[in-house]
């Protein structure tokens, strides 16, 4: 609660970009969001966006392994349990190992936990022993409350490594109880044959220890967090399984069926209960229903389309069957610090209850809800607009149960007439001319799957989903009207049937229905239905517009969040009332500390050899990079048509001069003069220019060190294409610069780009003074390697693209400033990293260990000359449920 460690993380932007911070943005600051960055390194030229994730420190001390620390950056709250809190009263167990256990709280992986308050939040795990139990009492060597017999435990194999002083100070009892080692699942034996990573059979195979204590450095202060305290209900919750026949995949239809069932039968058959439904198979009630299993017949009527015709009826059979009781007692025990793990099932029930009413009012997407009534719409360009909304999630915290609320924004398709939408998309007036083939294909891709409603039939607004676009103009389209082969043109049909004269006959028609028997709708009679979220990738201009809309001062964000909570009126929510959930309408106050800024070390040859950042800002004036990289041969390719060759040459010369002045060994002249190339020929231009350069460098036995690419501000896929060619095909370092940076000719921009280039070519910009003086806790006292891992998933709608796993690791010590990275493609939307550790079968050597971790450990040894004695692993996990399992796999 006092100490929250933030892990900055640069990521590609998601197309739908839900702009929210999970836990918790500090709302007391008065610094504008765009001014809280370092002047020297906070304006990245390749990827300008940074996101933040919460970090939670998890400690492991097995004596036979290097010290390993896990920091999971999942969007989950820290464990609310105080250090050393046992999970139950100690019960002595008969074991074959004679040494007695000592009182002292939880170990990391116990099967039986002693009750009472212990004195330590971590312990050392002896290697390769069967299960054993650790008692934790108030006294040493006793069970709960210090009056029971001691609990035997296995003797440790090998000496226990000396703990860091800062951790030893947090302990009252210097002798921690032994704890059960991580069990090795049966899958490990088969790993060599399958070539797959050994994965624990269950997330319960890993028990993470509690934090040893709270920090004390810095200036104490009180901040507000976007959490609203919730009271845990005392209701008896029941879980029922729901089966709807015929089965439908739409949550909207499922909810409509259950809503109709509740309206019809709540009083007669449901005992007056108001159930909460997840839209799939689960239904929850605050108390039992009058039956264990019951079948209902429900009829749904389609919405009135204004035609006056009889509405279509759909019949459904609904079977509700008792499944289990939802245990809130374990959640209460967890919040009170008397249980080891948060019961996810109970949290899921509460989350479903609080989402029931917003799901009916707004458009739900993921954990967020959007509506045009929740804020102003902002045009994003190309037929898109942003809708405001809010993110909502129930979380267990050290304050107790709380509802996390934040503001969100995402892109929706504007509800425009289709012709107007197409004109915005093409950025051209199409009301008086036919479409080219390229334009038709672009419109077809954008409109496929979009819902439209017809406007030529008065109040009758029937809806259709677009499946394609005709290759022929409307005036050329005909279709059979009877079995005798009589055909009629679309223009003639609309005139005779509806009295509607089609004006834009040169435009294609929309195809709706199936591909075998499509129906044709002229573009001018169709309007896009409101409320359709845009799930594809946004371009740079749209991303910029969305960021401008969502970037707020903390006080403005606090105001909007508070107003959103009042607008939602949780105290009047009938579902929250039914289940006994009460939500506070005030932001939670959290104890915090402002940590002192670390002093930065620069090269001794500069006028200023170190600096102390102020308010998170510093610059490179009068300073030189602590270790400048070497760039002896480089070249520039200009893909921006509005940047003349002379300006490109001047930009490159000024940039080279800045790199040299900052401490790099940088050649002032390129191998070849800057060359202009077309953006649609990036691969051909790069490879041709590269071979020209190598014809010059080859005889000298030199390599090309750097390629500078000048890109248009709205570069689309050009950036990715350039990086792919340079890094995969040519194997050279590249640095991209936008047109606006070239035109500014600003020294600050040159300095920022120079810092990026230096790191890419193996240099170091700065190091921490505390690292050189060996004063960084848990890092500088012994050789330490720091890992970071994440998985980036394809954008929604890309069903066949692989997910990309990335792992980085520090390559120097004690500075931990240089990092090496590895990437690996894996199964679509697979969150666990498959190539983290593998065992492959070698014909001569037999089972051979491999994987990304092994490669980076070997690289660290070659770079530093030391084997790491401690490992710190940061793992970003997108889903709370994946947190424990992902960390378990990493550790195993």
From TrEMBL:
One of its GO terms (biological process) is regulatory ncRNA-mediated gene silencing. SUPFAM superfamilies: PAZ domain (SSF101690), Ribonuclease H-like (SSF53098). Residues 174-184 have a biased composition (Pro residues). The keyword Nucleotidyltransferase does not apply. Residues 706-875 form the Piwi domain. Residues 102-119 have a biased composition (Gly residues). GO terms for molecular function: RNA binding. Keywords: RNA-mediated gene silencing. Residues 417-530 form the PAZ domain. Residues 1-50, 76-198 are annotated as: Disordered. InterPro entries: ArgoL1 (IPR014811), ArgoL2 (IPR032472), Argonaute_Mid_dom (IPR032473), Argonaute_N (IPR032474), PAZ_dom (IPR003100), PAZ_dom_sf (IPR036085), Piwi (IPR003165), RNaseH-like_sf (IPR012337). Residues 76-96, 146-164, 185-198 have a biased composition (Low complexity). It holds the Pfam family ArgoL2. Residues 27-42 have a biased composition (Polar residues). Signal peptide: none annotated. Belongs to the argonaute family. Ago subfamily. This is PAZ domain-containing protein. It comes from Aegilops tauschii subsp. strangulata (Goatgrass).
């Amino acid at each position: 609660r006092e100490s929250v460690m933030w892990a900055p993380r640069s990521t590609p932007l998601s197309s739908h970009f839900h702009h929210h911070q999970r836990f918790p943005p500090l709302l007391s600051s008065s610094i504008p969001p765009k001014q809280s960055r370092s002047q020297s390194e906070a304006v990245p030229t390749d990827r300008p966006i940074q996101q933040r994730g919460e970090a939670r420190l998890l400690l492991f001390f097995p004596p036979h392994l290097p010290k390993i620390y896990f920091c999971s950056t999942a969007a989950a709250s820290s464990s609310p349990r105080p250090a050393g809190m046992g999970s139950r009263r100690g019960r002595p167990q008969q074991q074959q190992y004679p040494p007695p256990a000592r009182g002292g709280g939880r170990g990391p992986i116990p099967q039986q936990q002693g009750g009472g308050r212990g004195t330590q939040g971590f312990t050392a795990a002896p290697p390769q022993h069967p299960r054993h139990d650790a008692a934790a009492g108030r006294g040493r060597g006793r069970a709960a409350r210090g009056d029971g017999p001691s609990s035997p435990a296995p003797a440790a194999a090998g000496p226990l490594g000396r703990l860091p002083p800062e951790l030893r100070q947090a302990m009252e009892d210097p002798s921690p109880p032994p704890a059960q080692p991580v069990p090795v699942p049966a899958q490990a034996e088969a790993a060599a044959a399958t070539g797959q990573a050994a994965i624990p059979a269950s997330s319960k195979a890993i028990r993470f220890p509690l934090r040893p204590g709270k920090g004390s450095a810095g200036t104490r202060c009180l901040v507000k967090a976007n959490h609203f305290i919730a009271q845990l209900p005392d209701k008896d919750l029941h879980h029922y399984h729901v089966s709807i026949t015929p089965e439908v995949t739409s949550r909207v239809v499922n909810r409509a069926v259950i809503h109709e069932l509740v309206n019809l039968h709540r009083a007669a058959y449901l005992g007056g209960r108001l159930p909460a439904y997840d839209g799939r198979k689960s239904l929850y009630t605050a108390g039992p229903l009058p039956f264990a299993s019951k079948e209902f017949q429900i009829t749904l009527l389609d919405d009135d389309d204004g035609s006056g015709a009889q509405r279509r009826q759909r019949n459904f059979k609904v079977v509700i069957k008792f499944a289990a009781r939802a245990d809130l007692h374990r959640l209460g025990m967890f919040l009170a610090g008397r249980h080891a793990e948060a019961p996810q099932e109970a949290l899921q029930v509460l989350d479903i209850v609080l989402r029931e009413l917003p799901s009916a009012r707004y458009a739900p997407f993921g954990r967020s809800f959007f509506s045009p009534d929740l804020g102003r719409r902002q045009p994003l360009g190309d037929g898109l607009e942003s809708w405001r909304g809010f993110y909502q999630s129930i979380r267990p915290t050290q304050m107790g149960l709380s509802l996390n609320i934040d503001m969100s924004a995402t892109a929706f398709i504007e509800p425009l007439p289709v012709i107007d939408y197409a004109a915005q998309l093409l950025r051209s007036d199409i009301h008086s001319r036919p479409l080219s083939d390229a334009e038709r294909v672009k419109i077809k891709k954008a409109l496929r799957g979009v819902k439209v409603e017809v406007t030529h039939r008065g109040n009758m607004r029937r809806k259709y989903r677009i499946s394609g676009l005709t290759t022929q103009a409307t005036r050329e389209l005909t279709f059979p009207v009877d079995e005798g082969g009589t055909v009629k043109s679309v223009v003639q049909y609309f005139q005779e049937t509806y009295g509607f004269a089609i004006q834009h006959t040169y435009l294609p028609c929309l195809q709706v229905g199936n591909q075998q028997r499509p129906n044709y709708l002229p573009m001018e009679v169709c309007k896009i239905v409101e409320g359709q979220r845009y799930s594809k990738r946004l371009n740079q201009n749209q991303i910029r517009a969305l960021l401008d809309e969502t970037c707020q001062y903390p006080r403005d964000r606090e105001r909007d969040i508070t107003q959103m909570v009042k607008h939602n009126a949780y105290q009047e929510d009938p579902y929250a009332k039914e289940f006994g959930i009460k939500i506070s309408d005030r932001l939670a106050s959290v104890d915090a500390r402002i940590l002192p800024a670390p002093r930065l070390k620069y090269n001794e040859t500069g006028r200023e050899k170190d600096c102390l950042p102020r308010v998170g800002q510093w610059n490179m004036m009068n300073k030189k990079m602590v270790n400048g990289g070497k760039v002896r041969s480089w070249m520039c390719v200009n893909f921006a048509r509005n940047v003349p060759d002379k300006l490109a040459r001047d930009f490159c010369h000024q940039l080279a001069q800045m790199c040299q002045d900052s401490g790099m060994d940088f050649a002032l002249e390129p191998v070849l003069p800057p060359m202009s190339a077309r953006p649609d020929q990036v691969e051909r231009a790069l490879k041709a220019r590269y071979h020209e350069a190598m014809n010059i460098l080859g005889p000298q036995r030199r390599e090309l060190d750097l390629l500078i690419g000048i890109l248009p501000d709205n570069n689309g896929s050009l950036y990715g294409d350039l990086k792919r060619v340079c890094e995969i095909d040519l194997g050279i370092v590249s640095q991209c610069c936008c047109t606006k940076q070239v035109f500014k000719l600003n020294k600050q921009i040159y300095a920022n780009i120079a810092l990026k280039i230096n790191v890419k070519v193996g240099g170091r910009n700065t190091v921490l003074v505390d690292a050189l003086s060996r004063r960084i806790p848990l890092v500088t006292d012994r050789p330490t390697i720091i890992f970071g891992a994440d998985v980036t998933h394809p954008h929604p709608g890309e069903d066949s693209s692989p997910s990309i796993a990335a792992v980085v690791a520090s390559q120097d010590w004690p500075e931990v400033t240089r990092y090496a990275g590895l990437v690996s493609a894996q199964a679509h939307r697979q969150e666990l990293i498959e190539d983290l550790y593998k065992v492959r079968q070698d014909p001569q050597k037999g089972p051979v260990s491999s994987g990304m971790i092994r490669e980076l450990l070997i690289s660290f040894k070659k770079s530093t000359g030391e084997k790491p004695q401690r490992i710190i692993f940061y793992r970003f996990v997108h889903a709370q449920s994946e947190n424990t399992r992902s960390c378990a796999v990493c550790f195993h």
